[in-house]
Fold this protein.
Amino acid sequence: MKGNKGIIFTGVVVGIISVLLVRFGNPGNMGFCIACFIRDIAGALGLHRADVVQYVRPEIIGLVIGAFLMAIAGKEFNVRGGSAPFSRFVLGFIVMVGALMFLGCPLRMILRLAGGDLNAIVGLVGFTVGISIGIVFLNKGFSLKRTYNLPTFEGYLFPSSIVALFVILLIVPSLLIFSEKGPGAAHAPVMIALAAGLIVGALAQKTRLCTVGGIRDLILFKDWHLISGFIAILVTALVGNMVLGQFKLGFAAQPIAHTDGLWNFLGMALAGFGSVLLGGCPLRQLILASEGNIDSVITVIGLTFGAAFAHNFKLASSGNGPTPNGQIAVIIGFAVVLAIAYFNIEKSIDVKMKEDVQIEA
Amino acid sequence: MKLSLIDTRGRSCPEPVLMTKKALQISPEGLEVLVDNMTARENVTRYAKNSGYNVEVKQDDNAYVLSITK
């Protein structure tokens, strides 16, 4: 396990902070949920009108600023983009539709598991199946093609927009819409949530923590590095929930969850499949967006747009279960992701060997 | 020493690792891999070491050259 200390430490910190955020007021098993939090921000901005899920989550603001500062400090802030941007937008959109079918991004899936929500096991199986389907395409040569360097200023715009959102939250919150009941009304105090995001953002940037990458690398390369972070989150949050009395084992009556196994499975399979093509889970996309990856900025906008769409058109599940619209959307989502996967296979051999080439170093 | 070369610049992970994996099947004695970001550098290095190779890193302007040898 040499070299895995950093990522295991990060997983432990994410686990502890997630459990504490619930203690401080976040919804059950939702210390962190990138999909839910982006959805809540979309609601606060009036992009959807589901009045129970509208709030500017300071965790997201902290994640972005923490990752941005860490990238600057580590000289890893590198502005690039141009790798199939609209395909990434569409994939982001579809990943959100899958996540809102299940009711959580892959990170919340781990946290739900750690809270004793057995529906998350069904989600995890689906997630793994989705990633495995994506890996088939990766092995066939799937690629969204290369990125190119972009002006540095371009990279500052996303973190700046997030800072602007935070300023609005602090100074003119009347511009925003806040839930008065439901999950959107349940939140930790602003500064605690912001600090939580800052810490996790900085650590996740440094260690490349990624839930999709963990399972992908294990299957693809038998590499335990990234998944050791995933496991550390699960174990730490599990212990933390037990200590704080937040652990409740079972399928029924879990916080912000439903018990429809088939659609929990399919929702996470879609999220896993889409994320593997994107190269990382929603958390990882947010971190990459903060370190100058404009393709990931586009992906985050796709996630946001998908969240707004999902609530405006009743695609998102609720505690009562999935909606017919959501089921249709997930099936269409699979068709679209399959098309993106299939039509981006590089037909020519993707390894160009140049014999006898000397690199001037 | 002359080694085969693959250029993974601009590619996001896991592509550089997959390209390295495929290239090492064609050229099992070793390889030079051009990468342009720290994540790819770490991931390709970890893959090569896990596969029993030695890795040497040289910095070349905005890129790194990873020399992967037995």
